[in-house]
Amino acid sequence: MSLLLIGLGGLIGAIARFQIVKFVNTSYSITLLSVPIKPGIMLVNILGSVLLGIITALVQKLEISEDLKNLITVGFLGSLTTFSTFSLEIYELLKQNNFQSVILYVLLSVILSILGLFFGFKIFS
Fold first, then answer.
1. CB distance 114 to 49 below 8 Å
2. Among 86, 102, 84, 105, which Cα is nearest to 94's?
3. How confident is the model at residue 37 (pLDDT cuts 50, 70, 90)?
4. pLDDT of residue 44
5. What is the residue-wise DSSP string for 5-37?
6. For the residues 11-15, what does the mean pLDDT come to?
7. pLDDT band at 85, cuts 50/70/90?
8. Which of 10, 24, 54, 77 qualifies as a cystine partner to 120, CB 3.0-4.6 A?
9. In this structure, are residues 47 and 116 in contact, taking their beta carbons and an 8 Å threshold?
10. Number of H helices and number of E strands within the chain?
11. Reduced DSSP (H G I as helix, E B as strand, rest coil) percent helix, strand, coil of the chain, to 5
């Protein structure tokens, strides 16, 4: 049963990621310090970190079943956040010798995701 719940969470997370990235990347364009950035993947990684912080805090406070925790964290959030896709985007920027974009994109993604996790944990603990 646990594997089915994780799979269900993964299915929902993958669909959510696809829709969020598609919507954000077609609706918004971000340029920071004259560097263009695709905001979709960065947003889902930050959002996933905030949600992981919230879930981690709630698991400590409430009696949430292991199956429900795994459905949300391993399944949904594991599929929603996209570190492998993030890595591919970095690789593509490196192939284009776009080092300024790589540095800014990596720093913003990592720092804002860690802050998002901290924020999510703090508001629910």
1. yes
2. 102
3. confident
4. 93
5. HHHHHHHHHHHHHHHHHHHHHHH--EEETTEEE
6. 97
7. confident
8. 54
9. yes
10. 6, 2
11. 80, 5, 15
